Structure prediction request, 442 residues.
Amino acid sequence: MQIKVAIVEDNAGLCEELQHVLASAADLVCVCVCCNAEDALHAIPKISPDVIIMDIRLPDASGIECTSRLKRLLPEAQILMFTIQDDTEKIVKALEAGASGYLLKDTAPAEIIAAVRDVHNHGAPMSRDVARKLVATFHHPARDTGEPLTLRESEILGLLGEGLLYKEIGDRLTIKLDTVRTHVKNIYRKLHVRSRTQALMNKPRGAQGGPPAPLRQNREW
Amino acid sequence: MQIKVAIVEDNAGLCEELQHVLASAADLVCVCVCCNAEDALHAIPKISPDVIIMDIRLPDASGIECTSRLKRLLPEAQILMFTIQDDTEKIVKALEAGASGYLLKDTAPAEIIAAVRDVHNHGAPMSRDVARKLVATFHHPARDTGEPLTLRESEILGLLGEGLLYKEIGDRLTIKLDTVRTHVKNIYRKLHVRSRTQALMNKPRGAQGGPPAPLRQNREW
DNA sequence: TCGCGTCTCACCCGTTTTGGTGAAGCAAAG
DNA sequence: CTTTGCTTCACCAAAACGGGTGAGACGCGA
Prediction:
């Protein structure tokens, strides 16, 4: 069974080139070509392709918005961004909109074909620079707010981030509730905050299942 | 100039295997091998390797915590996670801790070598499944089945996320403290949580003090 | 050996949060 | 008009949290 691919790309030259590349792979078939978002939203849902190759910069609307709508209409379709824009914001928004892959336009034909197959097979192909920028969004900007937390304190801050009660933290670490309280008080003093939520804000994105907020020890290591 | 690599891995067999793999590449040199986090934190800063290959499951402490501390001591070092654990939470936490690559232990030797070179060259090598899970963290939730929050409730949830007291929220919205309490209670009931922190964990990521959570109203409008 | 820092625990206090119940005003929908 | 849902507010009570102080045990480094 061939992989049905749709292309959304306003640049005519690039569009033809893409079709050519796809045609060179026996297991890929281009079933639809749209040069703007409106056409794409009308035509693509009727065709239900397996993979959609999407440009970000489109004449009538953003490829991001188009991606979001198409993904809602066709949750099973895998969307592969194909663009010249490699700024972090675009990458993140594209993924949030439902894209699963992100290729830059300098990608070699063979890699494009591989990416289409990969994304169809529930992979997440992306260009090298894109991967690095994506990873960088997780890196915290190295906040240097005051004193460092000790190992124990970092540990407890992590558990605070999970929404546990002091009592539950005590049970988890096999220490008394009062000890937990002592550590928490020290944490708050060091971070210059006065509540659990503020302590967590001082940190990570998401706080979702709060990542630990590990700081350095103040001995040599 | 060779790329100096340190290994933090408790499994002796795997450790040797890794050293062997590294030795097979002329441009890589293994300069340090540690089998626990404490040794790593003592030894590695003195050596300043270019790349650190880090296991997540270590005997004395989490490789996540170790990664975080090493990254602070050696911001220039590129840390490559090498582990059997591929759950989303571990991946995200490792990256937040400062890792730049994430390989699973079924990775072929040639790919390991390529990954070390890549990460040293400021890339972000990761296994296929890891990339997909990472991308999936951006895909909007598929949120909880719970009842939708009203506009007011979303608004208050946002302020809760800023760490404000009920009193402060009341002042901000010009409503009584008791009214804030009522909304909060309804929020907790709808989200099936029993504390501020737990409620925030169910919020969209990245919403630090951002705009009110864009949830839907339940009427048509 | 001494000092320092960490981790542990205890007790004091007041504030904040959470849970439950009830109810009034209001606007939109049926 | 009646029902439904949102917003507003009140009262009672318990649990959890935040701040301060003090202190013993341990390990590590000077």
Notes: The mean pLDDT of chain A is 86.
